[in-house]
Amino acid sequence: MTVSPRLTIRSLQVRAVQVPMRLPLQTSSGTIRTAPLALIDLHTEEGATGRTYLFCYTPLVLKPVCELLANLDEVLRGVAVAPLEINRLLQARFKLLGISGVVGMALAGIDMAAWDALARGAGLPLARLLGGECLGIQAYNSCGLGLIGAAAAPAEAESLVAAGFGAIKVRLGYADLATDLAVVRAVKAAIGDGVHLMSDYNQGLSVPEAVRRVRALADEGLYWIEEPCLAHDYAGHARVRDASSSPIQIGENWWGPGEMAASLAAGASDLGMPDAMKIGGVSGWLQAAALAESAGLPVSTHLFPEVSLQLMAATPTRHWLEYVDWASPILAQPMEIQGGMATALDTPGTGIDWDEAAVQRYRVP
Questions:
Q1: What is the pLDDT of residue 4?
Q2: Tell me: the pLDDT tens digits for 112-159?
Q3: Under a CB-based contact definition with an 8 Å cutoff, are residues 142 and 22 in contact?
Q4: Any long-range contacts for 203-206 (C-beta under 8 Å, 24+ apart)?
Q5: Which of 108, 100, 41, 60 is nearest to 311 (CA)?
Q6: CA 13 to chain CA mean position, Å
Q7: What does the angle CA 41 – CA 45 – CA 51 come to, to the nearest 5 degrees?
Q8: What pTM, to 2 d.p., does this model score?
Q9: Is 313 in contact with 336 (CB distance < 8 Å)?
């Protein structure tokens, strides 16, 4: 039996890039044209390097996240690569400030990089280090298909299923219900009954308006309706859920397992989709997966498809992998989808390695 070495952190390297998105995403909150990513390399004295990236949503947050991570380099030097103990150390440092927002993002990035380093040091895919297997997971294409209207949406929807996906997601939340209905019907007509259509309101509606719209969408065949109202209004989501015949999906804005537990207690949704960064990295995801199993909650992923694919192997109630290609241009080996399925490679870690030429092309100060 091979025993993996004890790893010690030598340094934390952080770089900022802004990667153009192949399909800009227009939501009720605005249009995202570039992916602001914080790239993390956790170097160890033993030679294993753990890697991950953080999606910062807006360039306004990219610099503060990178600066905080850089400030933590000195704190982490010489510390054992033991993610649970690293979390204990860092959460104690930020107890008075809190561990959501920028702080939560940074801590989750360190956690994901630490787990990747452990898996690489052990010579195992992260899925196997967590006790799972490198499984094929059904994936839906979440690239593009923003608020582009009923005329443009069908062609973009057809392009998303052309790669073999059996499910895609459309963003809703137009100024009027009639446009929501027109877009859904146009996309459904373009992709046919053999492709599932998820929908996402990106928190764009009041609770009464969400109730009105989910009732109107009842016969449109939507696979789920995601975040119709403000993410942390669990009581409001429970009201919408009671009015909806389509499953209600939330969870991408659960900051840690505690918020997920509160959502479950309120009966806020039929389905859950933790975000690997906001839930607390790999360590937080494992707690979320346990909560979901206890509640019988089907779990899908939000963004970060490379590490999320590995995490699904340790998720008893796994459901769908959300696929986005936003980091693909700076990855040495971007994720491939075959027959609508994503399969983790049987290589150490999460499979995240950088295309250094591309990193330099898109790097920002």
A1: 64
A2: 999 999 999 999 999 999 999 998 999 999 999 999 999 999 999 999
A3: no
A4: 203/28, 203/29, 203/227, 203/228, 203/229, 203/230, 203/231, 203/253, 204/27, 204/28, 204/29, 204/172, 204/173, 204/228, 205/173, 205/229
A5: 108
A6: 22
A7: 15
A8: 0.96
A9: no
Which ranges of the chain would DSSP assign to H, the alpha helix?
A: 59-71, 73-76, 83-93, 101-122, 126-129, 149-161, 177-191, 207-216, 234-243, 257-266, 281-295, 305-312, 356-362
- Give the tens place of pLDDT for each residue, 316-349: 999 999 999 999 999 999 999 999 999 988 899 9
Q: Tell me the two tokens of residue 301.
A: 């992923």
- Give the least confident one: 8-17, 159-168, 181-190: 159-168
Nearest to 249 by CA among 194, 302, 206: 302
Place 312 in a pLDDT band, splitting at 50, 70 and 90. Answer: very high
CA-to-CA separations, 231 to 20, 62, 220, 250, in angstroms, rounded: 27, 22, 24, 7
Token pair in block for residue 212: 């009105």
Distance, CA of 356 to CA of 13 (rounded, Å): 14
Tokens of residue 112, six digits? 């994901």
State the DSSP code for 134: -
Strand 224-226 to 196-200 pairing: parallel
pLDDT of residue 1 exceeding 90, the answer is no
